[in-house]
Amino acid sequence: METIVCPMGGGATRLYSALTHAISSSSPLPLPPSPLDPQQPANTILDPDFCQEQRGSPPDPVELLRQCEEALRDRPPRLHRKFIYLNEGNSAPSSPIRVMQWNILAQALGEGLDSFVQCPLEALSWSRRKYLILEEILTYRPHILCLQEVDHYFDTFQPVLAGLGYSSSFCPKPWSPCLDVEGNNGPDGCALFFDLSRFELLDSMNIRLSAMRIPTNQVAVVTMLRCRSTARRVCVAATHLKARVGWEWLRSAQGSDLLRQLQNLVQKHAGSPTGDLSADIPLLICGDFNAVPTEEVYRRFITLSLSLDSAYKKLSKDGLSEPEYTTWKIRPTGECCTTLDYIWYSRDALRVDAVLDMPTEEQIGPNRLPSFSYPSDHLSLVCDFSFKEGE
C-alpha cells in the first residue's frame, strides 16, 4: 500500500489574526487554570451511563469493559491488534510501564467540522463513540494515558477514570474550534491521566505553546511523576501541535518551545544547573504532532542532544522507520493516510519492551476511519516501557 501524504488545508485562520492582535496589544489571553485535582464545574452534568453510581463503590474495570462491550454488541468486530514484544538489553525488564497516546477526535469536530464523508452519522454519535473510546482505554489499561481533542473531560473521562484510580490534568485550547459548533460540550484540549497506584505526582503544569515568543492556540499538559515501585522519576508531556499544510514552521517552533520548557522543569527537579536529561529524569512526550517524519519538528526531536527516539520505529524491520500510517480518513478533499502521532522517549534511560501493532488496511476497511468499529480517525499508540538499570 502506498502511503499518501495529504494536504489538510491551508491558509491563516481568524484565530491567528485575533492572536496577533492580542499579542500586539500586550494583553495575551490567559490560559485557563487546570488544578491538580480538578473539581467538576458547577454546571457539569455527569454522564448518566457511566457516572450514576459514582458516589457509591468504585467501578470495577472488568465490569465497566463488559458494559462497553454489551452496549456495542451490534457493531462489527473491533480492530484486532497484538503486542510485538522486543528483546533488548541483557537485564530482564522490571514491571513495565504502559503508555497510551491517542487523539480521540473531539465530538463536536467529528459531528460538525471534520466532514468524514464515508462515515455514517450514527457511527459518529456520542452515545456510541463514548463506549468505543472507553473500551479502547479499558482493553489496554495504560499506566499513563495521553489524549488530544478531549471535549468530554469533566462529564465523562475525568469522573470515570478517577473512579478507576487515575489522577489527571486537562488543558483546553484558548480558542477551540469546537466552540463554533452548535450544541458543543465546551472547548477541546489535551488531557493526561496516570495510575495513582503506580505513580506519585511531583509536579504538573499546563503550557500554552509559543512560536518566537508569541503564544499560539496549541497547548501541552506536563507532569513530573515518581514511580512507586522503582522510585525513579519521569517527566511526561501530552501535546497537540498546529494542523494544516503551510504551518510547518510553526510546528517546529512549538516543538522547540515544548522541549525548552521540559528542560527547565527537569533542571528544577534534577537539582543541578545542567539537569542531566538523559539519565536522571527521562522524558516521555506523547502527541498528535500533525507532522510527517520528514518535517523539521520531527528532525529536531531526533537530532537534538536529548537522546530522544520514537518508540513506534521499533515496529519496522530496521528500527529506523515510522509506521505507514497513524491516521486514515476520507474527507471531501480526498483520502488521507499518513503518520502524525508519536511517543517520544529518552532512549538512554528507558527501554521499549513492547509495541502494539497497527491494524491492516483490510481490518480498517474501505471507508477508513472513524467507523462503527473505531471511534477516531487516529489510531491509538500503546507501548510498554521499563527503566534501564545502572544509570
TrEMBL record:
CDD domains: Deadenylase_nocturnin. Residues 26-46 are annotated as: Disordered. The keyword Hydrolase applies. GO terms for cellular component: cytoplasm. Keywords: Biological rhythms, Cytoplasm, Hydrolase, Magnesium, Metal-binding. It is found in: Cytoplasm. GO terms for biological process: circadian rhythm; nucleobase-containing compound metabolic process. Gene3D superfamilies: Endonuclease/exonuclease/phosphatase. The keyword Metal-binding applies. Residues 100-378 form the Endonuclease/exonuclease/phosphatase domain. Pfam families: Exo_endo_phos. GO terms for molecular function: metal ion binding; poly(A)-specific ribonuclease activity. Residues 29-38 have a biased composition (Pro residues). Its cofactor is Mg(2+). Belongs to the CCR4/nocturin family. PANTHER family: CARBON CATABOLITE REPRESSOR PROTEIN 4 (PTHR12121), NOCTURNIN (PTHR12121:SF45). This is Nocturnin. It comes from Pleuronectes platessa (European plaice).
